[in-house]
């Protein structure tokens, strides 16, 4: 079972849900896909080790073969290649590594070389197998790291994917292909606005989903009314609670100190696994 944990915006408690669920269920993997700012590992006592580099293939031009026909620059939708009358410029950080420029070049002047854009690190603690990706500072594209990270998913295990916040490409790449998506929100007007955006994304991806309301008790009931009107299941509510907030501030998953919540996460997982979250 692969469950993505996502949110329309940052700061809703997405990592809290992902880490506590991973610690509650059996045979769990936790993959932190927020590769620009991974932080799930802070809630575990573990040593991380580098697993592999992540590369992106970027074009290299042989100026002896190039006749500056511009077919490569016209093909590239990301403006990673600029052809001048007597020169050609490559902008590696704009390149998405599709390899299309090498295919359209009639002179065979373009080859590819690998450029490291980040790494995958892994470790384990409390029975949870853990991986996260780290995008190099200054690199603009997170999705190649996430794609590589998702290759670590063991189909014999229950994988929890902590998604980047928002609804842009990294979040879409994380949610895509998962069996279920938990959308974490808070009962505030901001939470509702971003939840609506996130709902559109998961519906477009055709991924079954449900909502977890974090910090229940603050704000108002418009999130619940929205879910009721759209027939979206609210699968868990976590109260705005001083003890939970204190444990979070200390980097401690609250299921380790509040075992009754471990049972709640197991119940939530079982509901999803049985297909009852409708």
Estimate what percentage of residues fall within beta strands: 25-35%
Helix content: 25-40%
Terminal-residue CA separation = 17 Å
DSSP summary: helix tally: 9
Number of beta-strand segments: 11
The low-confidence parts are none
* Coarse structural class: alpha/beta
The outline comes out as elongated
| Major β-sheet strand ordering | 3-6-7-2-8-1-9-10-11
Give structural notes.
With 278 residues, the protein is of the alpha/beta class. It is built from 9 helices and 11 strands. It has helices at 14-24, 71-75, 100-104, 143-150, 169-175, 189-205, 222-229, 242-249, 259-274, and strands at 2-6, 28-32, 49-61, 81-84, 87-90, 110-125, 128-135, 158-162, 180-185, 209-216, 234-239. The strands form 2 sheets. Strands 3-6-7-2-8-1-9-10-11 form a 9-stranded mixed sheet, with helices on both faces. Strands 4-5 form a two-stranded antiparallel ribbon. β6 (110-125) and β7 (128-135) form a beta hairpin. α4 (143-150) packs parallel to α5 (169-175). The longest helix has 17 residues, at 189-205. The mean pLDDT is 94.
Spell out the key features of this protein.
nine-stranded mixed sheet; 278 residues; elongated; 9 helices; 29% strand; alpha/beta; two-stranded antiparallel sheet; single chain; 31% helix
Short description:
The chain has 278 residues and is an alpha/beta fold. Helices cover 31% and strands 29% of the residues.
Write the layout of secondary structure elements.
Elements lengths: L1 E5 L7 H11 L3 E5 L16 E13 L9 H5 L5 E4 L2 E4 L9 H5 L5 E16 L2 E8 L7 H8 L7 E5 L6 H7 L4 E6 L3 H17 L3 E8 L5 H8 L4 E6 L2 H8 L9 H16 L4
Parallel strand pairs: 1-8, 1-9, 2-7, 2-8, 9-10, 10-11
Antiparallel strand pairs: 3-6, 4-5, 6-7
Helix pairs in contact: 1-9, 4-5
């Amino acid at each position: 079972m692969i469950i993505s944990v996502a949110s329309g915006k940052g700061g809703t408690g997405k990592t809290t849900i992902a880490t506590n669920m991973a610690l509650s269920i059996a045979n769990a993997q936790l993959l932190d896909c927020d590769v620009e700012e991974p932080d799930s590992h802070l809630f575990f006592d573990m040593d991380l080790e580098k697993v592999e580099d992540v590369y992106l293939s970027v074009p290299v031009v042989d100026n002896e073969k190039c006749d500056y026909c511009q077919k490569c620059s016209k093909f590239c939708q990301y403006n990673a290649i600029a052809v001048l009358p007597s020169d050609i410029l490559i902008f590696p950080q704009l390149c998405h590594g599709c390899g299309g420029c090498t295919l359209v070049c009639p002179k065979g002047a373009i080859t590819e070389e690998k450029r490291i854009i980040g790494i995958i690190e892994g470790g384990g603690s409390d029975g949870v197998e853990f991986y996260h990706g780290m995008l190099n500072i200054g690199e603009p594209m997170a999705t190649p790291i996430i794609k590589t990270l998702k290759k670590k998913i063991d189909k014999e295990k229950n994988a929890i994917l902590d998604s980047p916040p928002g609804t842009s490409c990294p979040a879409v790449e994380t949610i895509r292909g998962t069996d279920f998506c938990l959308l974490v929100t808070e009962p505030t007007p901001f939470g509702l606005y971003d939840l609506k955006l996130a709902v559109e994304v998961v519906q477009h991806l055709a991924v079954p989903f449900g909502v977890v309301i974090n910090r229940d008790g603050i704000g108002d009931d418009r999130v619940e009314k929205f879910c009721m009107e759209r027939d979206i299941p609210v699968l868990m509510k976590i109260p705005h609670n001083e003890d939970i907030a204190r444990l979070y501030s200390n980097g401690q998953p609250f299921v380790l100190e509040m075992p009754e919540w471990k049972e709640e996460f197991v119940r939530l997982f079982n509901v999803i696994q049985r297909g009852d979250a409708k």
